[in-house]
What we know:
By secondary structure, the chain is of the alpha/beta class.
Amino acid sequence: MRKNRVREIWAAGRPALNGWLHIPSAWSAEVMANQDWDSLVIDMQHGMMGMETAIIMLQAISTTDTAPLARVNWNTPGDIMRLLDAGAYGIICPMIETRQQCEAFVGACRFPPLGYRSLGPTRARVYAGADYAEHANDTVLTFAMIETQLGFDNRDEIMAVAGLDAVFVGIGDLRLSMTGQAGFDRDTVVDAALDDILASARQHSLKAGIFCANTDHAIEMIGRGYDFITVMTETAILSSAAGQIISTVRAG
């Protein structure tokens, strides 16, 4: 079975750099995959793509050794299983707030006896190899998102779920839930929570990921010990680069 690049990076003791895809395009996914990201997440929650487009985006990412991941729009087993069957090598599940929700999520990602995922890896066998079913439980990654006050309060119960590989901090929603304020501005309450989440992950032998709105934030989070660093979205990168070009040309 094809190796999971993120797992290999973690095994080497390094953080993984992850890109984030909102644009419903195989071409933009392929361009991003060729920029040496360790992994790319197709965002089915806040991105603009549907399932069929996500599948061809997975195919585009497969032209490289970048690990193809997806964030589902909700903790829905059918959608989770379909993305895995299409070749996603990891699933990020939003708004996990209880142990029971996490168990349902992880179970949908694991074949029996570890879970209840249905056996039908249609494209996954083509992408990963004919022995996919024998090794998928040890290769596919599971990320539970901690992004509400309740999820934060229940973090240790969530992280105790067998088969969970990592937590992923949705810092925008976490800040909104904890403080009532939207955005990514620094906040002492949220900043302390980030340390608590990381400490809990270490206690449970899990990896911890986070979304970063800019490169300075990403470098800081690596320094603090986070293992899976998402740096902006491709939409934000495109917007930022275009704005800089326009400003420079007009100023000149």
